[in-house]
User: Fold these one by one.
Assistant:
Number 1:
Amino acid sequence: MELSTQNLLPSWSKTAPIHTARLIVRPFQWTDLESLHKLRTIPKVMQWTIQGTIDSSIQQTRDWMKIFIDETDSARRNFNFVVTLRNDNSDDPANCQLIGVCGLVALDSLPVSPLPMLGYMFSPEAWGKGYATETVLGFQREWRRLVDLAQQTHSIPPESVEELYQIRAVTLESNVASAGVLRKCGWTMYEKVEEEDKSLLRWSVTCS
Ligand SMILES: CC(C)(COP(=O)(O)OP(=O)(O)OC[C@H]1O[C@@H](n2cnc3c(N)ncnc32)[C@H](O)[C@@H]1OP(=O)(O)O)[C@@H](O)C(=O)NCCC(=O)NCCS
């Protein structure tokens, strides 16, 4: 059986949160709108994203979120999460402060872009505390678990499994913070490209 990245993934409603020592990385909820709008209107966060500018209205944030909340549970086009701080005094996700976003977006561009791309952003109050590193490492563990699970339930040739373990990322060369996160998580920079007057670095990791 040919196994694509998309069919490794659980549906949106069955997506389990990723737990790390200090964080809960969970699927988007509509109640995150206000916190996400706040994050997406900070210029020093958004300047590093593909969009490059802040959201101009709450409606723009809502439209962006829509892509990541699939109430119909149809075939997945992304595997994106919000990052929240664990709150030992409450089990209610609403009481866990949202500090960022991390995940795979635009899986529908596969196989044009043959490997899934990881993206992330965190709010400035949370920078420099190792949260991005902890999130990306947690994500890599989850990715490996999903590939291993698929391997147990389908017969996949070993070379395909190796490929499925791989994730890629792109950073602006000037984004030293992001490069630091990827290096700490075991990623390798494999290519530098110039695109529309920007220097981009391409990265990959094998989550095995
Ligand atoms: C990039 C970003 C996610 C880093 O988040 P973070 O939680 O501060 O990262 P961490 O604390 O896990 O840092 C991990 C490593 O990154 C490096 N790093 C982090 N911030 C840095 C900075 N401002 N300058 C240089 N290196 C930095 C360090 O090497 C750090 O390692 P250390 O612990 O040995 O010092 C955060 O700055 C951010 O959200 N930026 C805006 C959005 C963005 O750039 N997204 C990525 C697009 S590709």
Number 2:
Amino acid sequence: MMRNFIYKTLNLFSPIFNRIYKNRLRVLAYHDIVDQNQFEKQIQYLKTQFNIINIEDLKEHLFKKKQLPKSSVLITFDDGDFSVLKYGLPILKKNKVPTCLFVITNLINSQKPFWWDEIREYLGNDDGNKKVKEVKSWPNIKRENYLKELRNNSDKPNKIVSQLTFSDLVELKTGGVFIANHSHTHPMLDMSSEYEIQNEFEESKSLFKKWNLNGFDVFAYPNGNFDKNSELLLERNQIKLAFLFDHKINKKNVNPLRISRIRVNSDTVINEFKVKTSGIHSFIASHIRSLN
Ligand SMILES: [Zn+2]
């Protein structure tokens, strides 16, 4: 209730921020589609309020200095959840809206769960959520060993889920979804060794090549975690665009390897969605931080 009231009030300022930030690129980061109706309302709002661009438009802007249209927004999805195909694609096609999907190459054509869901499955939701948070701050090798132990020591059968197949990727691509790179196994890059990161890129690169997809060089940092070292490795592997997960609208000059994204969910109610996409959020957050 309180949350709805706050967003309803904040939403009075959305038109102002939409205007102030009309020259700032907005990139939205979704994960799965849990509410198809709400998602369609969001897409229709974006179509009336913004110019929805695709990855090629962004590349031309960043590398060929071509101007973006006013009030540009790019829509992205992380992790390659099956629901994006099942519930998202029909809406995107119907509304003729381009998007970008960041896939974890190791999971394509598999029935393997996301590793964070696996932890929740074994530990239950409450303990699982805490553990997922904790594990994200561990060195990558410790995280991998922990997952192996969980699988080996549990009586439960390994969780099986629907992951996207290669032919699903083709269907998505045909429907206007640019298939991009979210690493091979979704480790935290700032918690991984140089060897591990290099391996992630080599594995995903060979699969993008095998599948004849050209999105290897468009990358979203798993969990948004990055540091100087991982950025150097991105450059060494010819990654051209890299996306963060920092809940911010972009500055006027966009650094191609540090593109900000605003987190949204398919079930975010429309007032809250309007507020978040306006950029108020990132304005308020930066001012709260500077007060601290
Ligand atoms: Zn992710």
Number 3:
Amino acid sequence: MGKAVGIHLEIRGLQKRFGERLVIENIDLQVREGEFVAIVGRSGCGKSTLLRLIAGLETPTEGKITQDNIWVQGINPAVRVMFQEPRLLPWQKVSDNVALGMDGKTEDIEERTSQILQQVGLEDYKDEWPAVLSGGQRQRVALARALVSRPRLLLLDEPLGALDALTRIEMQQLIEKLLQKQGTTALLVTHDVEEAVALADRVILLEEGEITLDLPIPLPRPRQRNSTKFVSLAGRILDRIMQTSANESSRQVL
Ligand SMILES: Nc1ncnc2c1ncn2[C@@H]1O[C@H](COP(=O)(O)OP(=O)(O)OP(=O)(O)O)[C@@H](O)[C@H]1O
Ligand SMILES: [Mg+2]
């Protein structure tokens, strides 16, 4: 099987209104093939809306989203999304949850499913019901389901937000490894600045529907979280977020 290549995403003049409310003001963003971009920003600033627009689950009020220079309208077939909750079907076994929505010959689907379950370390759980899995294991199934069809773009909306610190770090390492291997382009929304710096090639800060910081993370992988450069980059981003929060103290905090 050839290596899948991530898409080149381009967003121009994107705006989204819900009635009177302007949620995405004016976003221009380019994401290279195989690039990993983290999006941070306080609650309500429009992060999930941005991902939903890219996935084609919402229609832009203004602006264009193109992939490899093709204008995408409607549900985007190149995309898979992973959310904070695993959203598994309780009446389907683990392997059937992973294979959900896959097309092709049964044996190919079975092979791909067992391969990805092995990669996320759950090959022994393929015939289990989701109910017997831990929270971290369920998120691994969700990750396997998101990656089994080798999507060209993966959108992650706080996928690790509900996990304990250790499981979270393990999942971060797994996501990094699998995405690098598949060459997938990825956008990760997270509230955890350290997670953003550990995983992303670039970190973007979204404030009131606009990008106000776009910071490259030029650190070799896998990243050493206690290195001076890592700590200093994370500190810069956090300072920037806190600074804005302090300036608008009446608003919700991150
Ligand atoms: N379908 C909708 N109709 C009306 N308003 C919406 C809709 N979806 C989102 N909004 C509003 O858009 C704003 C941004 O919401 P969004 O979910 O994108 O924020 P977020 O940055 O993901 O926040 P959080 O960090 O809490 O997940 C919010 O004020 C929300 O109420
Ligand atoms: Mg959100």
